[in-house]
Amino acid sequence: MTSTRVQLCGRFVVDVEGRRLEGAFPGRQGRLLFAYLALNRDRPVPRSELVEALWSSELPRDPSDALAAVLSKLRAAVGNHHIEGRSEITLVLPPDAHVDVERAIASAHEAESACSLGDWHRAWGASLCTQTIGRRTLLGDYEAAWIDAWRRTLDDARLRALECYGRACLELGGTELAAAERAAREVIRLAPLRESAYGLLMESLEASGNVAEALLVYEELRQKLREELGIAPTELAQAEYRRLLGAPARG
Length: 251
Hints:
The chain has ten helices and seven strands. The radius of gyration is 23 Å and the shape is elongated. The strands form two sheets. A four-stranded mixed beta sheet has the order 3-2-1-7. A three-stranded antiparallel beta sheet has the order 4-6-5. The chain is an alpha+beta fold. The protein is 61% helix and 8% strand. Helix 1 (27-39) packs across helix 3 (63-78) and helix 8 (195-207) runs antiparallel to helix 9 (211-228).
């Protein structure tokens, strides 16, 4: 069976059973419509919801007719058997379909599951998949509230995958230690208040023999939390700091 690939992050690509279709879509609205259906292909989508997705800022004179025209052209490009329904529309792709956004989110879950099981090689591979997709902008030529929501979902998946990647690299050790440090620093850059990333960075620096730098990381976290939120690091972070200092952790 020929694979089906839908790429919504970065370059827009729709390859259905060996046929490249995106060039036949009815302009920008056709791409937006297909993207919305692809991101929601697990359920029938009401026509009213599609209208709002395509024309969120300014409705056409007759939204129903406008949607019908775009939908008709999209059906012709993709095939009626791939777009089902009348009052509610469903995109039907082959069982082997690869939708990049779905894969990024699923791979982040897989990486977290592998980390919880201590399967570091599987966590390493799954987290790289999410990172590769997450670095590209979802539907970069478009702006809409629903696109922003999906971008936030992907950003969260990327952060989680980065942490899993860093943890896997730390546990694998050896030449991967430098990658663990880089991953932790990248998470902190993207999410400056994410305490777990500071903990990962402290552990990575300690594993590389840089305990003094690890202590400085804790101090950076402490100051940032105090200045921005008026709180102290969690007891877990404090215990790690005391351990690095050589003091016994409190029970």
